Structures are given as structure tokens and as C-alpha cells.
Amino acid sequence: MFIQTESTPNPATLKFLPGQAVLEAGTADFPSAETSGTSPLAARIFGVEGVRGVFFGTDFVTVTKAETVDWDHIKPAILGAIMEHFQSGQPVMTGENAEAGHAEHDGPDGDIVRQIKQLLDTRVRPAVAQDGGDITFHGFDRGVVYLHMQGACAGCPSSTLTLKMGIENLLRHYIPEVTEVRPVADAM
């Protein structure tokens, strides 16, 4: 098994490509070791000293490290953990825990929210997946769109610029009711 790695715009996050499916659909975000109980793979990766976050896409794993740790010191152990897991035959996830992504929205703005989700799915999410992350809809209130940033996008120095200059401009262009885009700290 050969696992490729790619850098991301977030210097604390590295993208690992195992060359096979990680999730059949959706994403899974593990912002801490305590949240990894539903994933034998995430738990194994968190076993590496210095790992602070794990995120799964359909064909990639992104790992976020502590600021005090150097990639040269932990990358080999992470590669080993991923390889061991896929060779073990264990599932990546136990149960149905992959997220389709967007939060549900009930209310009078249903048509606007459908448009927002469609633009996110067709224009935004494929691009941020290339960088090892995901951006999902969290809410819409009085013109403000709330988005949840995951994987390499969470904590990325350029994420504010991406939100304001990229996503906000895109949504405002196509949906006049959108006035602003803001990140949410956690989708829970």
C-alpha cells in the first residue's frame, strides 16, 4: 500500500491519500481524541503523539497536528497508523456516523437555504475537498449565513479570506438575500 501526502493551505494540517475509499459518502470530523470512539481509524491516528484533529473525506484523511510538533517527527507514525488500519480489515467507521454535511433548516427561508446548499455543494465543497477540508451549512438568520469549517479548513489562516472574499461574494452574487457569511466554532 502506498499512501500519498499533500500539503494544505493550513500548515498544521496534512492530507493523506491512501489510494482507496475512506468513506462511501459524506464526511466525518473528529476534532479531538474523545470524539473518535466511532472510528477505529481515527482512534488509531489519535494514538500518535501530537495529533490534534482527524477528518475523513471519501478518499482522503486529513490530520491536524499540535503547533509544538514538527511534521518530520509524526508523519511516519501517522502513515504507519493508516497503513496498519487498512491492512487490518477493520471498518473505518462503526455504525452510520458519516455526515451528509448540511444542517437541517426549518422556517420561512426554505427556498433561500436550498439555493445556499446547492451553491455550497456545486461550487464550494469540491474546491475545499481538494485542500483536505469541508464547509457545511449551519444556519441562516436575517441575511447571515453560518458555515461550519472542518478538516484543513478549521483553523486555517486563510479561512477567513476564503469565507469573506470567496464564499460570501459567491452567495451574495447569486442570492441577493445573503448579506454576510460567518463561521461557527462547532456544528454541535
From TrEMBL:
Signal peptide: none annotated. Residues 3-89 form the Scaffold protein Nfu/NifU N-terminal domain. SMART domains: Nfu_N. Pfam families: Nfu_N, NifU. One of its GO terms (biological process) is iron-sulfur cluster assembly. GO terms for molecular function: iron ion binding; iron-sulfur cluster binding. Transmembrane segments: none annotated. InterPro entries: FSCA_dom_sf, Nfu/NifU_N, Nfu/NifU_N_sf, NFU1-like, NIF_FeS_clus_asmbl_NifU_C. Gene3D superfamilies: Fe-S cluster assembly (FSCA), Scaffold protein Nfu/NifU, N-terminal domain. It comes from the Bacteria. Belongs to the NifU family. This is Fe-S cluster biogenesis protein NfuA. It comes from Rhodovulum visakhapatnamense.
